[in-house]
Amino acid sequence: SCAVAWWGVEARDLARASGSRGVMSELIDRIRSNERAGVVVDRLSGGARVSSVWAKAAAEGQALVLTVSVVMFSLMGVLMGSMHAALEDTLVDFSADLPENLLAMVGGGDMSTPEGWYQLETFGLMAPIAVTLVAAVAGTRALAGEEHDRTMGLLLANPISRQRIVVEKLAALITHTTAVGVSIFAGVVGGSLLGGLDMSVANIGAASLQVTLLGVMFGALALAVSAATGDVRAGTVGTVGVFATAYTFNSIFAVADELDGWKRLSPFDWYLSGDPLNNGIDSASVGLFVGFSALFVVAAVALFDRRDLRRG
Predict the structure, then answer these.
(1) 108-155 residue pLDDT tens
(2) Which distant-in-sequence residues (6+ apart) come within 8 Å of 188 by Cβ?
(3) Closest Cα partner for 166 from 152, 179, 185, 149?
(4) Are 106 and 88 in contact (CB under 8 A)?
(5) What is the rounded distance in angstroms from the CA atom of residue 137 to the CA atom of residue 173?
(6) SS3 of residue 256 by DSSP
(7) What DSSP state is assigned to residue 261?
(8) What angle do CA 282, 172, 311 make, to 5 degrees?
(9) Where are the alpha helices (DSSP H) in the chain?
(10) Is 87 helix (H, G, I), strand (E, B) or coil?
(11) Does residue 114 contact residue 29 with C-beta atoms inside 8 Å?
(12) Smallest Cα–Cα separation from 83: which of 297, 74, 229?
């Protein structure tokens, strides 16, 4: 094989390939010379100038957002409605046999009702994981990722401030997380319609909004850690660690009556304690999510503005 490869390179007429490339380059140059076609070619080929940090950041995470959104819409949304409709009688008996404390550890809810079923199967754990995954990746890659890839210098070479970079990266993070939240909402609404579950669309929207805000808050935390350290690993480990700790403590608080007063320390209690699928939006929880997200963003701006990026 090596001998054939050696002979092929030595014998092949490379000038012919070079010539074809020259023809293609000449063709592209002619297209560029046309006023209308040139604009299209320039947009497709891209350029070194950064006109929108938000657009750049939003484009970088499209694959992950699309994958998570499809899974949440189809498997954890539409499919769950059909499953509940098919297994309704079985779920009534099964729910009666399960200990209440066990159900509380995974989000709580009565599986015999559509709202309880979706809270246990989708909103209890899978939806928070989905939105936090997307938000944390966006938050970590926003600043630390640019430094890791050694593209931060090129980004800052443009006439934009550090504060603007943080704000536009945050906007991309919110866009990604909202896309997943909308897919969850659409999937659950579709599952309710397909299974004839007659769930409240407004309440589904409330639960989807609150889980989206939960993800944005963890994403803002990742952004702050990323701004402080310039380290992708630190941002990822820190955010995942806080998420896992908050969920674990919320599960413990749910089954330990003597710790009931500590429940409000966990973001998961803010998210689910008001039972949004049955009762609608909880304004206090929304306020807590928005407040902590704003606090983390302010910290990210201050830390990133003061840190010496050359050391990173």
Answers:
(1) 667 788 998 999 889 988 999 999 999 999 999 999 988 888 888 888
(2) 77, 80, 81, 118, 122, 199, 204, 207, 208
(3) 152
(4) no
(5) 9
(6) coil
(7) G
(8) 115
(9) 2-11, 14-33, 35-45, 53-60, 62-73, 79-86, 88-97, 100-105, 114-118, 126-140, 146-148, 152-156, 162-195, 201-229, 232-255, 267-272, 276-279, 283-306
(10) coil
(11) no
(12) 74
What is the tens place of the pLDDT at every residue in 212-238? 999 999 999 999 999 999 999 999 999
Quick: pLDDT tens for 272-289: 888 999 999 999 999 999
CA dihedral 27, 29, 30, 32 (to 10 degrees): 130
For 230, residues 6+ apart whose C-beta sits below 8 A from its C-beta are 143, 144, 147, 307, 309, 312
Secondary structure of 111-149 as H, E, C letters: CCCHHHHHHHHHHCCHHHHHHHHHHHHHHHHHHHHHHHC
What tokens does 58 get?
């939003």
Only one residue has tokens 């030595």, namely 10
Asked if residues 193 and 218 have their Cβ atoms less than 8 Å apart, the reply is: no
d(CA 257, CA 55): 48
Which amino acid, residue 64? Answer: L
Six-digit token pair at 155? 């980004």
Check pLDDT > 80 for residue 162: yes
User: Which residue's entry shows tokens 């995470």?
Assistant: 61
In the numeric block, the tokens 């090129």 are attached to 154
Distances (CA, A) of 122 to 64, 93, 244: 19, 21, 17
Q: What is the pTM of this model?
A: 0.79
Q: How far apart are CA 163 and CA 161, in angstroms?
A: 5
Q: Which residue in the block uniquely carries the two structure tokens 């939806």?
A: 127
Residue where the block lists tokens 């991309």: 172
| Amino acid occupying residue 312 | G
Beta carbons within 10 angstroms of residue 41's beta carbon: 13
The total number of residues written for the chain in this structure: 312
